[in-house]
Design brief:
Distance between the termini: 70 Å
Strand content: under 5%
Helix content: 55-70%
Largest sheet: 3 strands, antiparallel
Structural class: mainly alpha
Number of helices: 11
């Protein structure tokens, strides 16, 4: 699968112990990506074994806000279809580019989880306009778009035949989807729109407006993951400022 869109990935770090390759791959994923990937596979397994129905998972404004089925706000981003090659394809792109973005966001999951909150909220607002009940694919597309714009010099290859730089990846995926399914990929287009909005205000806007970053996570959100900043440095500075007789 890595040969489909090769390049742009980070080498896996060496791990101790006698872990299986699949186990190593799983535990090397950052926390947000790991849980999202796990929940995605679990959702498909639950539907495949008929423990739940896909009709219980999609997003519907009436079902959520009239019938109080609030779990749909989450499950609409987790179900990509029954167990199939198409699901493998989606899980590969989900974990690959989600992982690359999360790893580049630093050790704390605060920034990447804020990005996920923004993207999921935006997609839920746009969903009724395009009648799209499942939003996992557009969410994955938005992450692919953001990564591709932040890595303009990374070279990728499609099946070892077509070579292009990362910014063309979302459009290559749209073309591949159009050829495969014969319909305009509205989900990927919506993901690109949401991803471009984030990219512009996070990577372009600050350089034009004195470093202002309107989409950065607020302090209260960071404290949920990082706790309150330590006061050690302040105390040391105050002690150093006392004159010595």
């Amino acid at each position: 699968m890595d040969n489909m869109f090769g390049g742009g990935g980070n080498g896996a770090g060496g791990g101790g112990g006698a872990q299986l390759p699949l186990e190593t791959w799983f535990y090397e994923m950052p926390v947000c990506t790991r849980w999202w990937t796990t929940a995605t596979v679990a959702s498909s397994l639950l539907v495949q074994t008929k423990m739940v129905s896909e009709f219980q998972l999609f997003y519907s404004f009436r079902a959520v806000f009239v019938k109080n089925q609030y779990w749909r706000l989450l499950t609409t981003f987790l179900y990509f279809g029954p167990l199939s090659l198409d699901l493998v394809f989606h899980v590969f792109f989900l974990q690959r580019y989600s992982r690359l973005l999360e790893e580049s966001s630093g050790r704390s999951p605060a920034r990447f989880s804020w990005l996920l909150l923004y993207a999921t909220s935006a997609l839920l607002l746009l969903s009724p306009l395009v009648s799209m009940p499942f939003l996992g694919s557009p969410l994955s597309s938005s992450l692919v778009y953001i990564w591709s714009r932040r890595n303009p010099d990374t070279r990728l290859s499609f099946l070892g035949l077509l070579v292009f730089t990362a910014p063309y990846l979302p459009w290559a995926l749209m073309g591949f989807s159009l050829l495969l399914h014969g319909v305009v990929p509205r989900d990927e287009i919506m993901g690109v729109v949401v991803g471009h909005f984030w990219y512009f205000f996070s990577d372009v806007y600050p350089s034009l407006h004195n470093g202002s970053r309107p989409l950065d996570p607020p302090m209260w959100w960071r404290r949920l993951f990082e706790g309150r900043p330590a006061q050690v440095d302040t105390d040391v500075d105050a002690t150093a400022a006392v004159p010595v007789n």
